[in-house]
Design goal:
five-stranded parallel beta sheet; Rhodanese-like_dom; globular; about 25% helix; Rhodanese-like domain-containing protein; about 140 residues; Rhodanese-like_dom_sf; STR4-like
């Protein structure tokens, strides 16, 4: 298995807009989607795919992740971009997708919220939100 390529949020957004087969999969939890927000792909005529990598409250790995990815319409030949809060869970999810036969997987660096800033807050230094990319509350 080859290493999962890292890609910036801006490069991901460009790929989502220009490649009809590109899919963005947000692997955070339902609570994160509801309270923090999700990428808004409607300007590109798409919707983000929401599949948790870990299942609350145990936070165990979602044993049906690959099956759910397939059911969501991601093909083995699709370019699939994975995003989480800061880039760790999405990297693990991308590796699992790769192991399940997805040939073109990418990890979105710094995720949706990025690292904490000097005051301990996320969403201001790096990541999807801090890059000024479209997002919305669910």
């Amino acid at each position: 298995m080859s290493p999962v390529p890292e890609i910036s949020p801006a490069e991901t957004w460009a790929a989502i807009q220009s490649d009809s087969d590109a899919v963005l999969v947000d692997v955070r939890t339902d609570a994160e989607w509801n309270f923090v927000g999700v990428p808004d792909l409607s300007p590109a005529g798409k919707r983000v795919v929401l599949i948790p990598w870990q299942v609350y409250p145990s936070m165990g790995v979602n044993g049906q992740f690959a099956e759910m990815l397939h059911k969501a319409g991601a093909e083995a030949t699709s370019k699939v971009y994975f995003i989480c809060r800061s880039g760790a869970r999405s990297h693990a999810a991308a590796q699992a997708a790769q192991a399940a036969g997805y040939a073109h997987v990418f990890n979105v660096t710094d995720g949706f919220e990025g690292p904490v800033d000097g005051e301990g807050h996320r969403g201001t230094v790096a990541g999807w939100k801090a890059s000024g990319l479209p997002w919305m509350q669910r």
